[in-house]
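Continuing the batch. This is chain 6 of the set; chains 1 through 5 are on the previous pages. Same settings as before, nothing changed between runs. Recording input and output for traceability.
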Amino acid sequence: MKTKKMFCAERVQRLMMSMFLLLILALLAKGYSVAGLVLLAFMSIMLFIHFIFDFCPSTVVLTKIFGSCYCECKDEE
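Output for chain 6:
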């Protein structure tokens, strides 16, 4: 049975997205609505690009650092 890696690109990317959303929520709660809305618009645009083109720059960079969660390596079989 294969065990999942604790830190791999897709999991780290999801962690970063959740922390980014918490930062936006904190900014909006503190009254920094313009900064929160700008960050929310940026994240929405990046998610839309990921949806349309199936390309996420953060996943590409994180894959080079941590490796992919979905490795198709022959030595792991």
